[in-house]
Amino acid sequence: MTTITTRTVEYPADGLTMIGHLALPAGVDRRPAVLLGPEGMGLSDVERRRADALAELGYVALAFDLHGGRYLGDPEEMLARCLPLLADPDRMRGIGHAALDVLRTEPRTDPDRIAAVGYGTGGAVGLELGRGGVSLRAIGTVNALTTGRPGEAARIRCPVWAGVGSEDPIMPPAQRNAFTAEMQAAGVDWRLAVYGGALHAFHHPPVDHPVVPGVGYHPRHAQRAWRDVVDLLAECLPVTEDLRA
C-alpha cells in the first residue's frame, strides 16, 4: 500500500465555511484528481476513506462538504436542506465550483485531468458541473439520476457513468428513463448500471441514526459499484497518461 497524506481544507461556499478532506498520493509530481461528493447527509468517514483509497491508487482526491462541516443525521433536517438544493442548479454548481477551485489550486493536481464522482446529492453536484460546461474527464454517480435544465446536458463533454439500485424508490424507473433520455438526446457518452435488488444508498454502510424510507445497504453491490467507479477512472483518467495518444 502506498503512503498517502491527508489534510483538512476550509473554503467558502453556499454562505457557509465548508470543511473538505484532501488526500494526496505518495510523491511530489502532479497527478490526475477526483472531486468526490457525499450523500445528502454530508461528508463522513465513508467519503474520507474513499478519498484515501483513491489516493492509494495514485489520484489526488478531495471529498467535498455540503453543509458547512455538519453531518445531518436527522432525516427531516437533511431533506429540508437537500431538497431545495437539488431544485437549484446554480446553488449546486456554486458548491461544486468552490470545491473544484480548491482541488485545482492544489500543487499536486494536474488541473487538466480531473473527474467528478459523487453519491446522491454529491453526485447531482457533479452532474451540474458537467451541465455547466466544466471540463472534466469523467462523471460518475451513484443514486443521482437527476435531470437538469432543458438543453444543458449538451455541455457535458465527458463520459457519464451512473449506478442505481433496481428497488430504489427515490430513483424509480421513471426517473431512470428521464435521466437516460436527457443524456441520449444531448449526445452524451453515457452508461447506466442497475444493481438488482438494491435500495437507495446501497453503497453506504449502515448508520446509527434514522434514515429516509427506501434506504438499505447491499454489501455485494457496494463492492461492485466501487469497482465500476475505479474502472471508469482507469478508462477515462488513467494515473499514467500515454502522451503519445
Automatic annotation (TrEMBL):
<dbReference type="InterPro" id="IPR002925">
    <property type="entry name" value="Dienelactn_hydro"/>
</dbReference>
<feature type="domain" description="Dienelactone hydrolase">
    <location>
        <begin position="20"/>
        <end position="235"/>
    </location>
</feature>
<dbReference type="InterPro" id="IPR029058">
    <property type="entry name" value="AB_hydrolase_fold"/>
</dbReference>
<comment type="similarity">
    <text>Belongs to the AB hydrolase superfamily.</text>
</comment>
<keyword id="KW-0378">Hydrolase</keyword>
<dbReference type="GO" id="GO:0016787">
    <property type="term" value="F:hydrolase activity"/>
</dbReference>
<protein>
    <submittedName>
        <fullName>Dienelactone hydrolase</fullName>
    </submittedName>
</protein>
<dbReference type="Pfam" id="PF01738">
    <property type="entry name" value="DLH"/>
</dbReference>
<dbReference type="InterPro" id="IPR050261">
    <property type="entry name" value="FrsA_esterase"/>
</dbReference>
